[in-house]
Amino acid sequence: MGSSGRAAVFDVDGTLVDTNHLHVVAWWEAFRQAGHEVPMHAIHRAVGLPSTDLVAHLLGDERDTDQDADISAGHKALYGQYFDRLPALPEAGALLRRLHRDGWTVVLATSAGGAELSALRRAIDADEAIAATASADDVDEGKPSPEPVEHALELAGVPAERAVFVGDTVWDMRAGSRAGVRCVGVLCGGIPRADLEESGADAVYADPAHLLSALGDGALA
């Protein structure tokens, strides 16, 4: 594709698929089983971090790190119960198909891998539009490090100035900003507009349907 192309890089959870609150409940229960009472609103704001980082963020550096793997495994098992019915956000698939038709290289940048990623892709139902997937397994550091976004740009073969990154969390906006791409926030993950703008969002939309309806004159024009 080379530098003549444009890349649209998408976070998946909370951006294209309505999973953030399912993650919150699964993390809450995993923490509870390990003897920790962690408020759901705190978990919600941490969603989007890689598992180990999320546990560290919520329990702090004084925690018993021997529990980390069990807590993450607990979340993974609990969350796995939803794989057969993950709900796509309105027009998520249509948005990716439209961008693909318009000549964008569409890349997913997600901390999900394996069966989870397969379930997310089934929910989005736009495989023909997705050129590549940058998963957590491919990078040393997850968001808010710029690595996942930089890796997505490498896969797309497009420089940062010809790319847009769409996400729903402050971690997404920070990662995109650090990678030097234009950042677009969506509100469907439940994070407030002000938080997204403060973290680097150049534009904010309600959800994929809103972004699709604004394509002609919006951030992806």
Order of helices and strands: EHHHHHEHEHEHEHEH
Largest sheet, in brief, is: 6 strands, parallel
Radius of gyration: 17 Å
How helix-rich are the residues, as a percent range?
40-55%
Question: What class do helices, strands and sheet pairing give?
Answer: alpha/beta
Q: How far is it from the N-terminal to the C-terminal residue, by CA?
A: 19 Å
Which residues form runs of ≥5 with pLDDT under 50?
A: none
The number of strands is: 6
Mean pLDDT: 95
Sequence of strands across the biggest β-sheet: 3-2-1-4-5-6
Share of β-strand residues:
5-15%
The coarse silhouette is globular
Number of helices: 10
Describe the fold and architecture:
About 45% of the residues lie in helices and about 15% in strands. The protein has ten helices and six strands. A six-stranded parallel beta sheet has the order 3-2-1-4-5-6, with helices on both faces. Helix 1 packs across helix 2. The mean pLDDT is about 95. One of its GO terms (molecular function) is hydrolase activity. Its EC number is 3.-.-.-.
